[in-house]
Amino acid sequence: MLFFVVFLLFSILILKLGMVQIVYGDDYKRELQRTDAITTSNPVPRGKMFDRNGKVIVDNTPLNAITYTKSQNVNSTDMLKTAGHLSKIINPDLSKIRDRDIKDYWITKYPKKAIALITKSELKKLDYKQIYNLELQRIPAKVITELSKNQNEMKTIAVFKQFNSGYALTPQIVKNQNVTPEEYAVVSENLDNLPGVDTTTDWERSYLFGDTLKTVLGDVSSSEQGLPKELLDQYLARGYSRNDRVGKSYIEMEYEDVLQGQKAKVKNVTDKSGNVISTETVSDGQRGKDLVLTIDMDLQQQVEKIIEDELWKTKQKPNTGLLDRAFVVLMDPHTGEILTMAGKQITKNEQTGKPEMHDFALGNITTAYNVGSAVKGATVLTGYETGAIHPGSTQLDEPLLIKGTPMKKSYKTFGVINDLTALQVSSNVYMWKTVIAMAGGHYVRNQPLDMNLTKGFNTLRQSFSQFGLGARTGIDLPNETTGLQGPDMTQPGHLLDLAIGQYDTYTTMQLAQYVSTIANGGYRVQPHIVKDIRDPELDNNQLGPIVEEIQPKILNRIDAQDDWIKRVQTGFRMVMQPGGTAYSYFQGVDYSPAGKTGTAQAFDHGQPVMNLSLVSFAPADNPEVAIAVLVPSAYQGATGPSPNDEIGRLALDAYFNLKKQRQQQNQNAATSGQTSGNTANQTTQQAGH
């Protein structure tokens, strides 16, 4: 019986073995040989930024880097072991270690001690995540203190933290700042003993002009910061990895899709256990496309220097305690190309207590102020459109005595003046009487104003918006403000203030768009700071072929006849001529400017101040450049300095002087080339003779 049972069992075993080998053998063999192909994407350097003349503004600086790629089957103990080895040959950054990182390390290194912190009854009730969180809470404080004092442990913690921040089969930066040649070499020599670790070349963003235009260029997140939390899902849906570096603000963010580039695709072949058995490059990827900005960096730097000098100089004068900033925009009035977008702000150094100058170019679109009489060109054109006045209309510039209201007047009494003179001398009374008629009212001395205020406000604001005042300019940058509208539409005095730029607030960019609309004959052009998009060139300092050229975009045509616009252009020209409010600053220039000055009463920190502005274009008969200058809180009191006019004059001088210099350089180059060609021809002829 025993022999029979043994025989039977062996027969069954042989039969079963035969089934495995003969019937299912190929299936099991295929299962053993089964592999998975997982494709990962590796980031590439971002596109560069150039100025309109081909100068590199933003570049990528190569960095030696040490990376870690987590395999699918690696466990925390193995990662900790590798982190310990690596921490002995590099100096990781310890400044970013948090208490949580120390706790994670301790739980991984001492799992038995960690689990001993949990009672048996708790182990039965809680899941893994709850147990881990409870372990984190119960780690004694002295453990954290002791580890914090151990330099070697802290170095391991710093490396282990970086290992854990990565994703399976995706390289994670362990160190890319201040990697010494010795560190790079030693790590490279020991890669066989450091599974998952590699040495490579990384990059960081470099801004070649320092602080110049920095607030507008924007920032890029670090590999540690990765994708911004508020946009995480949006980026992940577009194929980004969590630790990808992306533009965080302004141009870097606005043109993220262009600058990011095409990632390198790598196929990792793994066995059924998750071990990588081969790696294949599917595509090398391509650096991000380059941006050519409309900015002229030579002009930008000169204008910034002008602003700085004028701010420091004006701060030395009395009643300028609240002056701390100034803005300038120069643009092509026909195309909307921003040639200069400059802004400077004086702040106090928290450590030294001394004032410092910082870039605040962004303030041209993010801050708005009462700008004063610079808007009077729009007021006059609105008067023409509504029939309140017509070209050549005269008004008596006299103090207005309105019942129940303090006397309102221009800074001087001008008597009977027409529309051109009103612009030339900046008559407030002419504008007030125009807007009173616009609102269906009529001024009678010592009587209240009976006007349709709703009609007056709506008409004036709607007309101003056609010029870009109080509306988005459409510039290709995020977070542009439209300014603020004065809230009270029940007071006649507020409507009068609106007509002279002392009620609603506007940005410097809006002023530039407004004066460009007048300069080009009535077309509101959308300003833009990117000129074209280019494919990256093999020679990194050269421009590649154009992918997209940003074309001028007309947003609207103002409701004004051509002769009306020419009339206002003439008035602006008279502002710069004898008798005009800006003549003393612009007399003697050879580029025939036209423009309008502005002074607005405002409040800063509860103190009454004067905001100063200037809008201009030149040459007056064929405008090629428009400028807006804004100096908020220039001084306190009835009279003071005029840095707005000084800055405007010097900035326009810089533009036309730079133009002359370049024309001369081109002529010299052409002459030199022609001379060289003639010399070569003469040499050839002599050789022939």
From TrEMBL:
Transmembrane segments: none annotated. Its main location: membrane. Pathway: Cell wall biogenesis; peptidoglycan biosynthesis. The keyword DNA-binding does not apply. It comes from the Bacteria. Residues 661-689 are annotated as: Disordered. Its EC number is 3.4.16.4. It catalyses: Preferential cleavage: (Ac)2-L-Lys-D-Ala-|-D-Ala. Also transpeptidation of peptidyl-alanyl moieties that are N-acyl substituents of D-alanine. Belongs to the transpeptidase family. This is serine-type D-Ala-D-Ala carboxypeptidase. Residues 671-689 have a biased composition (Polar residues). The keyword Isomerase does not apply. It comes from Neobacillus pocheonensis. It is an enzyme of class 3 (hydrolase). It is a single-pass membrane protein. Residues 43-279 form the Penicillin-binding protein dimerisation domain. It is found in: Cell membrane; Membrane. Residues 327-639 form the Penicillin-binding protein transpeptidase domain. Keywords: Cell membrane, Cell shape, Cell wall biogenesis/degradation, Membrane, Peptidoglycan synthesis, Transmembrane, Transmembrane helix.
